[in-house]
Design brief:
The protein is mainly alpha-helical and 294 residues long. Among the domains are: 71 residues, Alpha Horseshoe (Serine Threonine Protein Phosphatase 5, Tetratricopeptide repeat), CATH 1.25.40.10; 59 residues, Alpha Horseshoe (Serine Threonine Protein Phosphatase 5, Tetratricopeptide repeat), CATH 1.25.40. The chain has 16 helices and no strands. The longest helix is centred in the first third of the chain and has 24 residues.
Length: 294
């Protein structure tokens, strides 16, 4: 029997590793993150320096919420090749690990690569917004939209910057753009509702929050904001039922619901917060006077 030349064996192994990484990437795209991680680790046993497998492992681990564990393989992959996508994932892993300064340096470097990636600018904008560097975040998201005009998530993040700066009109434009690309996008609906709430358009805002809750009944912020709108509209019984149902399901949210109840401009006037708290905990309907606070 003829023995195959060593170089042919090496080529076959390299081809097998590349095919395995490709299949692992397909598993990752299908949200089978554990399978993708397993494939990456199998390749790395044979070839610890395989950049594609290191990248795959980092993304798979990051997708499972293990950001700190994702940093090392992504750092090694980024060191071995100057790749904006790898650096973007590394920046995200660093950010989610709380290493903000390192994340910023990494993402700023990735943003200088040619050609630039919209995903890099997306991640860079998120980090800048977290640091309240809103002008820089706005610029990053806008640059990302120039590269990917139909990316709804970029428009949503841009709308979030405008919300943070209380620029309701600009926020509505950004969220409307996202909704034109992805009708029913929950974050865009909620953001649009928040902008309407800022403008005092409580009925229209409430409709947006209801749309969010129709898709995700457990959306806490939407339930709180809906309760706020109903209070402002004078629909006190509906507001109370909304807030009380939320606190019955999640008692840890009692404080947030109480804040909405006592701070709304057209809500009931409470002489004592304790009376409002007692009312919120009660099972009665309507707005009859609660027992006096002790």
């Amino acid at each position: 029997m003829k023995r195959r030349p060593p170089n042919l064996i090496g080529k076959n192994r390299a081809a097998a590793d590349e095919n395995a990484v490709r299949l692992g990437a397909q598993a990752l795209d299908a949200k089978r993150c554990e399978e993708a991680e397993r494939v990456a680790r199998e390749v790395l046993v044979r070839n610890p320096q395989h950049a594609g497998a290191l990248h795959l492992l980092g993304i798979a681990v990051l997708s499972q919420g293990r950001a700190r564990e994702a940093v090392a393989p992504l750092q090694q992959a980024a060191h071995d090749c100057n790749d904006a996508l790898i650096e973007t994932h590394l920046g995200k892993a660093l950010r989610e690990s709380g290493r903000m300064s390192e994340a910023l340096t990494c993402l700023q470097r990735a943003a200088t690569r040619t050609p630039p990636l919209s995903s890099t600018l997306h991640e860079l904008g998120i980090l800048l917004a977290m640091q309240r560097r809103y002008d820089e975040a706005e610029a990053a998201f806008k640059r990302g939209l120039e590269l990917a005009p139909t990316d709804a998530d970029l428009s949503v993040e841009l709308g979030g910057v405008y919300i943070s700066r209380a620029e309701a009109a600009n926020a509505k434009l950004a969220f409307a753009r996202a909704l034109s690309q992805v009708p029913g996008h929950p974050r865009a609906l909620h953001g649009f509702g928040t902008a309407l709430l800022f403008e005092g358009e409580f009925a229209r805002a409430a409709e947006r929050f209801r749309q969010v809750l129709a898709r995700n009944p457990s959306h806490v912020r939407a339930r709180l904001d809906l309760g706020h709108c109903l209070l402002e509209l004078g629909r006190l019984d509906e507001a109370a039922a909304c807030l009380r149902a939320m606190t019955n399901e999640a008692p840890q949210l009692h404080g947030k619901a109480l804040k909405v109840l006592v701070s709304a401009g057209r809500g009931r006037f409470w002489l004592r917060p304790s009376a409002a708290a007692m009312f919120l905990r009660s099972q009665s309907t309507g707005w009859s006077d609660p027992p006096a606070a002790q």
